[in-house]
Each structure stands twice: as structure tokens, then as C-alpha cells.
Fold this protein.
Amino acid sequence: MADYAISVTRSAEKEIANLPGKVLARVKEVIDALSSKPRPIGCKKLAQSRNRWRLRVGDYRVIYTIDDRSRRVDIERVRHRRFAYR
């Protein structure tokens, strides 16, 4: 089974760059793991969306979409849970 390609939006790149050190390492691990398993244990589908998912990384959330046809994962946001859904 081929892995999924991961793309990160420019705004998500900026959010990742501004994360605290320990959180940054954990978020990068989680994002890298999405290439082999885009729906890991603990991920949740967002209710008001057709194709958006979220993963918890401590107090931070990784919001992403999955395209199974093109085998692609698009990271849209990486934010503190207080601001993730606004």
C-alpha cells in the first residue's frame, strides 16, 4: 500500500514554526505518521465538514483533509485548542 503525500498550507507552516519546542517535536511526529496512516486512533471527523479531520496533540489540534483518490493529506491548521475551530 502506497503512502499518502502530505502537503502543508502556508498558514499552517507559520503556525507550526511558532509552536513551543516540545510541542513542535510532537506535532512533527504526528504529521509524519499521517503519511502511512491518515486516520490513526484518536482522530475525529469534524461534524460540520465533509472531509475534515482533527488530531489532538496535547492542547494543540492538527486540522487536516484526506483525499483518498489522490492519496493526499492536506494540513490546514495547527493551533491551540482554544483557537482551532474559529
